[in-house]
Design a protein that fits this description.
Arc Repressor Mutant, subunit A; 241 residues; single chain; 10 helices
Length: 241
Amino acid sequence: MPTDEPAPTLSLRERRRAAATQEILDAAESQITEHGPTALSLRAVARSLGMTVQALYHYFPSRDALITALITKAYDDLADAVQAAVDTAPDGSDTPRLVTAAEGYRRWAIDHPELFQLLYGTPLRHYEAPLDGPTTLAMVRMGTIFERELFAGFTEPQLAAADAATSHPDGLPPAGTGALPPPATALLMSAWGHMHGLVILEVFGHTAFLGAHQAGIFHMAMRNLLQDVHGRIPAVGDVPD
């Protein structure tokens, strides 16, 4: 019978390195929060910690390495917030889990606009995320949460027979976990774009004229989105053989 093995004990040197790495990340994140992603400066980060840039390079060998770590952390923090919103939803709530997840996404973005801009704003000049690196894995984790909540309860044959409103869904690359049938991939990306677009408009101030109505309109839009997606997926008995 499998047993939980204790986590390996870190050496004193490893603990000190981990603590210093976290301090650097916290300082860089604070700089982004105060001045925006484009103002990120390794020299300023090092100066705020009382260290030299050369010393900082012992922990992050390049600006890109630090940015990659910051983006990965931001994606993970956002995914944690979305998952926490779903996990802490009141028992018996009539709000669908997908709507709750979307509202958790919106709240994090509103509370952390500069970090949200780091993830989804204008790409930082001269930065290229490593292919299939930690930023990609963190982003996939986020997509997997929404995929699960959007399609919970549906079978693969149902998803494969969904009306994706596209004439060539079979040519689509995989999304999320990579296990979705192409029509479901099309629906997922359409739903994600709708949700994400509304959040971007709000975070970047384009819907400020709506005032206190923004939350209610977003809630309504997410319910309508979910109803539309589910209406495009046939019932079990209607799936063609």
